[in-house]
Design brief:
This protein is α/β, with parallel strands linked by helices and 322 residues long. 31% of the residues lie in helices and 26% in strands. The protein is built from 10 helices and 13 strands.
């Protein structure tokens, strides 16, 4: 008996974790394993966001499509050996990962059966992403690799824009099935390919970029991690995060506020949208941790701006990767 593998890709903040949680609520979560890849050294999604899977493993501090493939193989081994036996594994790729490359690694293990490659697309920002000189090629590859495209956040885009986006997506991937979604809520039966359908059958070999190309895409990003044991003001942090959302590709983490009760919040910032959601009340949070993903040719200025904005609330220690 083999494990079905479903790879979920998509650019930073498109809604991949929301889709994984939705599928866990739809299927029997105890029969589903989840592998979460994160570019940052702290895997916020694996630790705090993904809920209820039979087994959740995090791979952080690199992109599994190029720099940490050994750890991906080890994670698949754990999934295959887990008891009670799992039926499927969801692989949430890094937002800067190439799902096509990941699929080739997953197909090299006889215990696994690659079922589908899903790419989640933010309807409100995808045109800008495709035209971005730093991330455009990466986003294009993520779209071209998909069997299914989840056109997410349709509530944030007018009908005329959705029509234009649909035409662009079909031009990049003529055979793909596009599923529109709000908050990544989709019919789970539309996600998987019918039994016997050969995945990747239509894709030419050029769809798999050279390793050096993947590493170049990975290196186009840097992550900045900030920590503080000081309590922070929730409203002040929201204002600062709203400001910093304009310069960061993605912000996520956990903050511990000065409130007397229920004082821990998950931070999710993408495409200018700032969300502070109550964290698990049963977990103990001893410090605030924020992860910033940056791209472009002015990352030093971005880092200075981030440190200046957050220093108004607490004393932070920072580290930079990439």
């Amino acid at each position: 008996m083999t494990l079905d593998v479903i790879i979920i890709g998509g650019y930073l903040g498109s809604g991949k974790s929301s889709l994984v949680n939705h599928l866990l609520q739809t299927w029997d979560p105890k029969e589903t394993g989840v592998i979460v890849n994160d570019l940052a050294p702290i895997n916020v999604d694996a630790q705090h966001v993904i809920k209820g899977a039979g087994l959740t493993l995090g791979i952080q501090d690199g992109c599994v499509c190029c720099s940490v493939t050994d750890r991906l193989g080890e994670a698949f081994d754990w999934m295959a050996a887990f008891r009670p036996r799992l039926k499927r594994v969801l692989v949430e790729a890094s937002g800067v990962g190439d799902p096509c490359r990941i699929s080739y690694y997953s197909r090299g293990m006889r215990e696994l059966s690659l079922n589908a490659m899903i790419t989640v697309v933010d309807a409100s920002t995808i045109i800008d992403r495709l035209n971005d000189k730093f991330v455009g090629n990466l986003v294009k590859r993520q779209i071209e690799a998909a069997d299914r495209l989840i056109l997410n956040k349709i509530d944030l885009a007018p009908a005329s824009r959705l029509s234009k986006v649909g035409a662009i997506l079909h031009e990049l991937n003529p055979e793909v099935i596009i599923i529109r979604a709000h908050h990544s809520q989709v019919d789970a039966s539309a996600i998987c390919l019918p039994d016997g359908t050969p995945t990747l059958r239509r894709r030419p070999s050029k769809m798999l970029p050279a390793a050096s190309d993947a590493e170049t895409a990975d290196n186009a990003f840097s992550t900045m991690v900030l920590r503080t044991k000081d309590s922070v003001d929730q409203r002040g942090m929201r204002r600062s995060l709203t400001q910093l959302a304009k310069i960061a590709e993605r912000i996520k983490g956990v903050i511990v506020t000065s409130e007397q009760a229920n004082n821990s919040y998950l931070v999710q910032v993408a495409s200018g949208d700032v969300q502070l959601m109550p964290a698990n009340p049963l977990a103990a949070y001893h410090e605030s941790v924020l992860v910033f993903v940056l791209s472009g040719d002015n990352t030093n200025l971005q880092k200075e701006t981030i440190e200046a904005a957050l220093s108004r609330h607490a004393r932070w220690t920072s580290s930079v990767i990439g």
